[in-house]
Amino acid sequence: MSRKSYIFTSESVSEGHPDKVCDRISDAVVDLYLGRDPEARVACETLTTTNRIVLAGEVRSANQVHPDEVEGVARAAVRDIGYEQDGFHWRKLDFSNFLHEQSVDIARGVDASGNKDEGAGDQGIMFGYATDETPELMPAPITYSHQILKEMARQRKTGLRPEFEPDAKSQVTLRYENGQPVGVTSVVVSTQHKAGFSPEDVRELVRPIVADILPEGWFPPEAEFYVNPTGNFVIGGPDGDAGLTGRKIIVDTYGGAAPHGGGAFSGKDPTKVDRSAAYACRWLAKNVVAAGLAQKCTIQVAYAIGVSKPLSLYVDFHGTGRVNEVRVEDALKQMADLSPRGIREQLGLSRPIYARTSAYGHFGRQSDDDGGFSWEKLDLVDQLKTLT
């Protein structure tokens, strides 16, 4: 039986964190190719360091994408994040592009041909999760961690808090009783800032943001409210620490409250089940919890490269279910086509909707009118309610 009373922590990082800069650039490249060709194949990895961006990976498109366009979207991503610093400036940085054509061996295994349906872009396991502890049906620690940084970025970009710079991290620790969050025990925020501000100055700039995000009465004790605990944080972003695509996968998902299959999302087109199947599992788990079948739901699927049919589908309600998990597994197999093509078509994934996912989590977001975050929709709830 799972524990009912415990303390749990999750962290988030801002869009200006070096790894998130890389995720944003990689997803901007995915959007560029999908905007030109919905069937494009993209696997784009990004490295950033002091005034340098390096791209590597494989692409395929029926319509030509010029290297200058790739460089343009990369620089535009850095500019939108807000980097105009001596050590990392969107206009002045050096850019290298080593993207090349997709391997014919991979293409042969993945592409549909004759009676063969489109196969998975790789082997692997993927997870989705939902919990009723927040309105977003997400774990509370990662939800609050994201919200703190998102609001700090908003205030920085609107000029309300020009003292902030783009690189930041947050961490929220909650106390749970009877399986539900009841209070905050500590908050940590580390944020890059302009020169001339003391740690105490920055602490007081961050304080009202944290207070507004957390539920009333949940602000931690003063001794457990940490802001830039090592002191000044002026040099940051890729100038302070190199970044790579795909190094913040727990930030991207559930903050450690649920399993992760290990595969990153950013930089991958939706034929890669690392991305699309994880989105599908979140879609199914969220609908299960929204339908009242359980308070918590974990879903796992597995694939073999080049094979369209998932090898397994597993549902776990963590002891909170109102119906039998096997019955839900059988129902979900009928409601959802979990082949790579089926996922892409049901969730409308073959479109340029990915740059917006690269910071503040891929889950717990609002569905957009243009199809962004389609995996957050609740369109299976009525069908699932018939199982009770």
Structure description:
With 388 residues, the chain is α+β, with helices and mostly antiparallel strands. 32% of the residues lie in helices and 24% in strands. The protein has eleven helices and 13 strands. The strands form four sheets. The protein has a four-stranded mixed sheet, covered by helices on one side. A four-stranded mixed sheet has the order 6-3-2-11. The chain has a three-stranded antiparallel sheet with strand order 7-12-13. The radius of gyration is 21 Å and the shape is flat. The protein starts with 5 loop residues before the first strand and ends with a helix.
Which structural category do the helix and sheet elements fall into? alpha+beta
Low-confidence stretches: none
Distance between the termini: 23 Å
Give the CA-based shape: flat
Chain-averaged pLDDT: 95
Q: Please summarize the sheet with the most strands.
A: 4 strands, mixed
Helix content: 25-40%
- Count of DSSP-assigned helices: 11
Counting DSSP E segments of at least 2 residues, the number of strands comes to: 13
Strand content: 15-25%
- Radius of gyration based on Cα positions: 21 Å
* Spatial strand arrangement across the major sheet: 1-8-9-10
Secondary-structure element sequence? EHEEHEEEHEHEEHEHEHHEEHHH
Concise summary:
The protein is of the alpha+beta class and 388 residues long.
What tags apply to this protein structure?
single chain; 13 strands; flat; four-stranded mixed sheet; alpha+beta; 388 residues
